[in-house]
């Protein structure tokens, strides 16, 4: 089995899925997916220097969409990128299910729709009852049959605390169709161990963090980048931090800028931590005008009260706002 191409290093954005307002959803049970706005936001990110997209991950609410909606969304974004001149723009598509057969069904749909990679969530319904050996076997079974290369998505917050250990990544990284991972947890040691493991071919297996507040430290120690929600509305700042952190030789001025940017990004990530997906959607609307404030599907429907946005923006986003406006 030939090795597959790993995603490029850099900043990927786990984009939220945009939904139309109730008034524009023609009496549907839930708001309809807004592919036009999804494409507009995608092009905005591409023009800002974002490396690629993660569509229909946790932030993208894949579990709230039907099979057809998921396939149509990926295909619509791919077509929109092509029309805007961004052909072959990197797209990972999220797979958030535990059944191996259903996981492969999602991957087959995504391959047909134009995604280059699948970001496959670790099967965590049973949490820590899943041992590392069975986790290896599960991902191997999926990768053997997947039509596109996959990345391991480890997000203990939505998988009942299941964590893939460094030795598990070492084994899975040898599979020619497993080309990376996204660690959405705060264990920097795991990021650094996997990013520097001498038994892993790091040109073929890339490590990304789901936390922008870890960007500087993990990239300095070999990680490929981040898949970070804050970059959905402050893309230029996160891209600039990535570029500086990825430079192996620092001048005193560059190091000072890295520290300043990492502080601003880490501070702004507190906003994401407190508001989640609703806060990301709110930030996008406030910064770009894209989306509907009342949009979203239950149970994540809604927006931030005005007084909450004002207070949180002043507390956490003022530094990054100033930086973004200068880039």
UniProtKB/TrEMBL annotation:
Pfam families found in the cross-reference section: DHDPS
CDD domains: DHDPS-like (cd00408)
Domain of life: Eukaryota
Gene3D superfamilies: Aldolase class I
Alphabetical list of SMART domains matching this protein: DHDPS
Single GO MF annotation: 4-hydroxy-tetrahydrodipicolinate synthase activity
Protein name: 4-hydroxy-2-oxoglutarate aldolase
Species this protein is from: Trichoderma lentiforme
Organism taxonomic ancestry: Eukaryota, Fungi, Dikarya, Ascomycota, Pezizomycotina
């Amino acid at each position: 089995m030939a090795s597959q191409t790993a995603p490029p290093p850099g900043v990927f954005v786990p984009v939220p899925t945009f939904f139309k307002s109730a008034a524009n959803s023609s009496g549907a049970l839930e708001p309809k997916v807004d592919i036009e706005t999804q494409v507009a936001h995608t092009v905005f990110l591409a023009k800002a220097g974002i490396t690629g997209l993660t569509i229909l991950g946790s932030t993208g609410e894949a579990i709230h969409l039907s099979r057809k909606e998921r396939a149509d969304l990926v295909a619509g974004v791919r077509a929109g990128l092509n029309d805007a001149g961004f052909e072959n723009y990197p797209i990972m598509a999220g797979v958030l299910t535990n059944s191996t057969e259903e996981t492969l069904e999602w991957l087959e749909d995504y391959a047909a729709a134009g995604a280059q990679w699948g970001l496959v969530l670790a099967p965590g319904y049973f949490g820590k009852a899943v041992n590392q050996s069975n986790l290896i076997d599960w991902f191997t079974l999926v990768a053997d049959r997947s039509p596109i290369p996959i990345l391991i998505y480890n997000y203990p917050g939505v998988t009942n605390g299941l964590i893939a250990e460094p030795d598990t990544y070492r084994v899975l990284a040898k599979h020619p169709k497993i080309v990376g991972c996204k660690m959405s947890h705060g264990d920097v040691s795991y990021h650094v161990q996997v990013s520097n493991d001498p038994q892993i071919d790091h040109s073929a297996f890339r490590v990304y963090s789901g936390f922008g507040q870890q960007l500087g430290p993990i990239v300095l120690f070999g990680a490929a980048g981040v898949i970070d929600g804050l970059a959905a509305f402050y893309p230029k700042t996160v891209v600039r931090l990535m570029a500086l952190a990825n430079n192996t030789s620092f001048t005193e001025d560059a190091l000072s800028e890295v520290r300043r940017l990492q502080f601003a990004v880490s501070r702004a990530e507190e906003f994401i931590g407190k508001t989640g997906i609703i806060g990301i959607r709110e930030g996008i609307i406030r910064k770009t005008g894209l989306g509907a404030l009342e949009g979203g599907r239950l149970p994540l429907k809604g927006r931030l009260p005005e007084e909450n946005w004002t207070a949180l923006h002043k507390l956490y986003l003022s530094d990054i706002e100033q930086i973004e406006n200068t880039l």
